[in-house]
Every structure is written in C-alpha cells, then in structure tokens.
Amino acid sequence: MRFHHFLPLAALLFAAGCQPIEEDGIDLPGAPDASFEWEYLYVDTAAVPYVDSNRVVFTSLAGDGFLHFWDFGNNLTSNATQDTTFYPQAGTYGVTYSVYGAGGSGSASDSIFVANTVELPCEGTLALLTGCDNQKTWIFSGDAGAISVGPQPGSSEWYSSPLAGLVPEQYDDSYQFTTDGHYFYNNNGGTVNPYEGYVVTPLEVPDTLSYLLFDGAGINGEDQIYLPQDVFGFCWFMGVWDAGPNFDIIELTEDRLVVSAPLQLGDCSAGEGYFTLYFAAQ
Fold it and tell me: d(Cα 182, Cα 179) in Å, to the nearest integer?
C-alpha cells in the first residue's frame, strides 16, 4: 500500500518541479541588429583631399553586441566595430558582418564594387621580393640556421638547423610573390607537418592565395609580408607550416631573403616563440 501511495506523490512532486519560474517585468533581450554601413576612404591631405576607392571603411551599427566578426571578401577578417580594408584588385567583393549579443546573433551582407586595380611601382622591397617582370622564385637556403627557433625574434636557443640539414621535402618547396599580390607555394605534393610529428603530409595548395606587403609594419620597423587565411579559414605560411601569418623581412637582397615569423598553432592562433627562416633565390 505504501508503494501505491508513493507513485502519485512522486508524480505530483515532479509536475510541481517542472513548472516554469515566472517573474513579472522581465524582458529577455532580442538578437542584435547586424546592420552596418560602409564608405570609400576619404583622405584629407594638406594638399588636395581625395577618395581612395580601393580602401573601404566599415562601421557596425549594432550597438549592443559583445562579439563582432567581419569577412571582407578579400581574404581578410576583423573583430573590430569599425575597420578599414584594402582591395588592390578591381572587382565585386561580398562582405559579411556577424554580431553576437546576449539575446543571440545576427548577420548581414553587402557587395562592394572596386573599379580600379592598384598599379604599384615595382621598386624597392617589392622589386627584390618579386623580381618584377622577371619572376623570382625563393627556396630554402642550404646555410646552417636556415630554420631557427627561439623565444624572441632572431633568437635560436630552441633549435637551429645544421648546414644543409633540412629534409628533401623542404628543399624542393618553392615560393613566389607577384607584383599584383598573388602568392604561389609549390610543395610538389607534400609538406612537412609539425602537427603530426614532422612527417610529410599531402597538402593541396590552391592557386588563389594572396599576400600583402606592408611598409615598416614589422616588430622593429621592418617591411612585412602578410599571408591571410584562405576562404576556408586555412592559415597559409612560408617555409614551415607553423609559422605566420606575419613575416618580418630582416634581410632582402637580389639573392637572399631572411624573415622572422611568430609560431602559429594549428587553429591559426599565435604560439610562443619565433622562427627565423633563410631563403635563396633560385
């Protein structure tokens, strides 16, 4: 009999326990408004102000979001509420903005038309890096220390490769930068994979990679090569898989390129330490 009396009581307690808690006057927040605006960059120089139609300023109008993400359609992204991006090539670019708030998330998109391709004079760092009309190809140097790793830029406390000490799959990799912003990495089918015990892993490299060259953006004011993620979010590199995305140009001559790059984890986040990489013109 006690058993039969216990079941209705348990059901009653369960039903009572599942009643929602209701409070008067509480309004749950809605999803944030993901609207945004954009404009070509207005450059107010002391001489003649002008509009730079290859640089676009994006501004969030969401207001109450705590996380913002932009995909500018040029292989560059941002988490700022306002940012400026550069489109060196003429064309139409799809831009997506997402915002996350207490009540959920929202997204919006728009298309940006860029009328002109920027024709940069092939001189200085750009000329030495690309070869201008005589396309230059870079390969790993056979020097000792061609790959060095340490806690600070330029340091080699953790590792320094011996003379001609790389594996064949590293020496047969080649790298090209073009004057119009394309980056070509030829790995002959396989790349040394530091995330899987430094074995050679098949890696298909698309022919749509790009790079940006920034004057004086390095840690110590060096010119800098920047390799953005591709449209699938893969973090590309030069020399070693776990370096990037910034490569400060420490030395650059007609036949020698030395760069310093931070360690990069498999999810594209920054690791601890820096690579120094030596390349030779082929």
Answer: 7
Mean pLDDT, the chain, integer:
87
Say how many C-beta atoms besides its own lie within 10 A of residue 137's C-beta: 15
CATH 2.60.40.10 corresponds to the domain 36-114: yes
Nearest-angstrom CA–CA distance, 280 and 259: 12
User: Where exactly are the structural domains of the chain?
Assistant: 36-114, 124-281
CB 147 within 8 A of CB 240: yes
268's enclosing H/E stretch is none
> Which of 212, 236, 210 lies closest to 224 in space, CA to CA?
212
Pick the closest to residue 138 from 247, 238, 248, 237 (CA basis). Answer: 238
CA distance 104 to 200: 43
Residue 4 has pLDDT above 80, yes or no: no
Q: Does the reported pTM lie above 0.85?
A: no
Least confident piece of the model among 5-9, 17-21, 264-268: 5-9
Asked which of 14-28, 70-84, 101-115 is least confident by mean pLDDT, the reply is 14-28
Query: For residues 182 and 162, is the Cβ–Cβ distance under 8 A?
Result: no
Phi, psi of 177 (to 5 degrees): -120, 130
Residues with Cβ within 8 Å of 44's Cβ and at least 6 positions away in sequence, in order, are: none
Residue-by-residue DSSP string for 183-244? EEEE-TTEEEEGGGTSEEEE----TT-B-EEETT-STTS--EEE----TT-----SSSTTB-
pLDDT tens per residue, range 65-77 = 889 999 999 878 8
196-220 as b/e, with b when 16 or more CB fall inside 10 Å?
A: eeeebbeeebeeebbbbbbeeebee
Residue with the bigger pLDDT between 61 and 2: it is 61
